[in-house]
Amino acid sequence: MTNVPSDRNPNDGQPRPSYDRIDVPRSDAEVKDLLQRTIEAANNSVVVTDMRQPDNPIIYVNQGFKALTGYDEDEILGRNCRFLQRHPDGTMDNDQAAVRAIREAVKHGRYARVVLRNYRKSGEMFWNELYLTPIEDDDGAVRYFVGVQNDITERVELNQSLERRVEKRTNALKEQRDELEHAKERAEAANRAKSVFLANMSHEIRTPLTAILGLADVIRAKSTDDTFEEHISRIKAAGSRLMDTLSSLLTLARIEAGSMDMELEPATVVDVALEVTELFRSNAEENDLSLDFHVTPDARDAVAQLDAGALNSALQNLISNAVKFTDSGRVEVRVYTTTYEGTPYVAVDVEDTGVGISEKFKPFLFESFSQESDGLTREFDGSGLGLAITKQLVEAMNGVITVDSIIDVGSTFTIAFPRADEHERPTQEAPGTRPVDDRDARVHLVEDNDNTVFLLQNLLGDQIDLSVSLNAADAVQHAQNEDFDLFLIDINLGAGGSGVEVLHRLREMERHATTPAVAVTAVAMPGDRDKLLKQGFDDYLAKPFEADDLIEMVNRHLEA
Ligand code: FNR
Question: Which of 183, 234, 264, 404 sits at a 20 to 30 Å CA gap from 454?
Fold first, then answer.
């Protein structure tokens, strides 16, 4: 067998027969006959129209066209192809971009490819992929058009169903996104509503509470004997407890709303820890517990970036819990330094010999309103917010909190903060002083609440020249005509206006352009202090306040 590689057809590996051995049609008649038979037998549908006859009629169709449309030859020949656009209801379905494209192609004697809706004789719709090709005569004028049709219904419907699925999916995703968006908006609105509610509630509770606690002080000061000492103490204790719960709620709401503005600055941990421990000394003694405080030498000056108020609250929660949950034995507070993953920390342990925490409860320990009980009885006082707040506060100061506990043996809570010892030890603030120093001072109080006015008159009335306006208009009028050394201004004057308005009017007056003005308010929401200072107040005193704090503040501004 001869092997001539150049003669091989690369596709089938068989030797290619030489061209002159193929029997090709020799005459035109033979070629025509061959072509006609080929077209006739083709699976595609073929149609030829004559451009020179009126309305471009069909002069030839193959069997493929008949099979595709269901019409017989005598129903087809001599007609324009548009009869395929006739809807079973008798109307013409010719408002299709494809029909307009064919019209243009035919008009200009151009090639075209379109896909359009057509109808078989049976009335069934099909998608027709139509190729139009002009055939020119010897003069270059278009004499015939050849049309080749394919039924692509299956392909189009598959595409359409895919498109519908994609569209459905896209719509579903869009709906989900919209729903999420709405949920977010609703959550934000709810959060704002919560803040407003808390601000209002805070105001509503703090204002009367200020009066209750303050007047208890007044009664104590004016009593000549001890008849009511116990009653007063109880009023003060219950009021303070209510204030604590209120503060805890507000703190938690602030932390959860992400609006807790912590002011982190270098603070000596041992100072805060000692101060808080001492707060609980009498409490521990009443319960026959020993309360010990230890500090290792290297922790004496250990400083961390803290918000002293926040650390104070966190430790108060831990130590008060330790005292509350320990029947006998001791509570020990230890301050020491340690290193974790190469970072030096200053840590505080609060250890007790109390009831301990069950394994079952440990996972929920730091959640809001959690208290270990059967859910019906509450064995111990408290709102169950303390540990949730403590954890949030500690973490907001970049600290960590851990707990180690054995039931009926005791618990140790540890909080630790990265050390920041290169900072200087902070200086101590001067303590408050009892009587007002400047007895001739003229102080003007703007306050609409009778109880608060009565309280301040009792606390300050004997010591300074205190005058009062019950609303904004009254205050402005007084200020226009009189000199004062200090203004104490309530912010929420009810229908009588706003303290901020009063301040702005004061600042417009030459005589009070720089007179110190203190906002005295039960509005104690996140950022309120800063907001009021930004508005131009020189200071801020939250209700309820201790008598000493008020006097200290008054002194500070009268001296300045
Ligand atoms: C067509 N036309 C056509 N129309 C249709 O709906 N289905 C078809 O299969 C075909 N096939 C076809 C083949 C050839 C060769 C030509 C020249 C045309 C189009 C139809 O005849 C007509 O041109 C269009 O309907 C636009 O013109 P009218 O209806 O606005 O005159």
Answer: 234
